[in-house]
Amino acid sequence: MGVFSSLGLFYAIILKKTLEQVLGKRKDNPMIDNLRKKIETALAEAKDMTALENLRVSILGKKGEITDLLKSLGQLPKEERAQAGQAANELRDWATLAIKSAIDDMAQVQQQNALATESIDVTLPGRRRKIGRLHPISVTHKKLEDLFVSLGFNILEGPHIETVYNNFDALNTPHNHPSRDEADTFYFNDNLLLRCHTSPMQVRVMEAQAPPIRVVIPGMTYRRDEIDATHTPAFHQMEGLVIDKGITFGDLKGMLELIVRHIFGPGTAIRLRPSYFPFTEPSAEVDVTCYSCKAKAPEGCRVCKGSGWVELWGCGMVHPNVLRMSGIDPEVYTGYAFGLGTDRITSAINGITDPRLYFDNDMQFLSQF
Ligand code: PHE
Question: 36, CA 20 to 30 Å: which among 3, 160, 269, 320?
Fold first, then answer.
């Protein structure tokens, strides 16, 4: 309040002086004098920006009093017109300047008041920002992707909800195969399911592009498994597919050894066990030495269940039926495929013995990586 009323007084003095300069020598012009006084009073009384703005509009706006005054000059007798016109114009110039500087000063006062009320307590402790990090399985995926990109592979992703055709039929899976059972796979209906492996992406890729093909597809997969020390109903795989002229099982084995060396270092042993998958022929399981007991005390080991080996992925040469169904001539092209179990690879790298930890979102666990 104090600030505003002294501001008002200040203006009253300034305005009076200016007005004397403008109109001092003139004879009485009661209309102009009254308007001037009215403006002076209003400026002295204006307590905030809204009042000043309203004043500006009511005096200088389109229908403002000075505007009206200027418009009405034409009705005066000729001999008075020039002098009155000059007085009115001077009044308008004066009022424009006076109201504008009152508005500018009011803005400054408001800003100073705002700064005075704002205070920062510099002694308060800072707020620590938690820095996020990659999930350990993402770290494994990135590490593997680095290798595959360096070998000229493309990295793709596929839908988690798949067709029964891509997930089973186009992969040469017999109708009586146990993986088709509702007890093993999550079905939405007769045609759609949650993919139980990343292999349906083999079909999508082969249908979409002609050989040569070099792709890997990381992603989550789903099976109706009971949760235990080696199983979770959601888990991750990274599918690999290579199709070209003259690809052999030797190329596959070389690739597997390259992958194992890249992840576990040169010391880790692998074992290829003959196996069966409907979509590869011949097929094999790839095992590595147990990362929990290091194959030293397998009897009591929950991870390798006494074998000293852990199954990490399946692989094989792409079955001619699969190539044919996806429009590739098996007489011209051959290829191999593999499905890396990346949860288990992550466990092996980090010595983790319980895959449930990957899905618990426990910060104490996750912040260790
Ligand atoms: N899809 C198989 C599985 O989930 C793994 C696999 C992929 C086997 C590619 C052979 C070729 O068990």
Answer: 3
Cβ-count burial 86-104 (b if 16+ within 10 Å, e if not): ebbebbbebbeebbeebbe
196, 224 in Cβ contact below 8 A? no
Identify the structural domains of the chain with CATH numbers, from first to last.
Answer: 2-117 (no CATH), 136-366 (3.30.930.10)
Contact at 8 Å (CB) between 326 and 170? yes
Both tokens of 266, joined, read 């040169």
pLDDT tens digits for 31-85? 888 889 999 999 999 889 999 999 999 999 999 988 888 888 888 888 888 888 8
DSSP secondary structure, 321-364, as one string? HHHHHTT--TTT-EEEEEEEEHHHHHHHHHT---TTHHHH--HH
Atom 10 (ligand 1) nearest CA: 315
Average pLDDT, the chain: 88
Question: Which pLDDT tens digit goes with each residue over 150-171?
Answer: 999 999 999 999 999 999 999 9
**Cα separation, 48 vs 36, whole angstroms:** 20
How long is the chain?
369
> Which residues surround ligand 1 with Cβ inside 6 Å?
197, 199, 277, 280, 283, 314-316, 337-339
Q: How far is the CA of 274 from the centre of ligand 1 (A)?
A: 13
pTM confidence score? 0.65
CB atoms under 10 Å from CB of 122, counted, come to 5
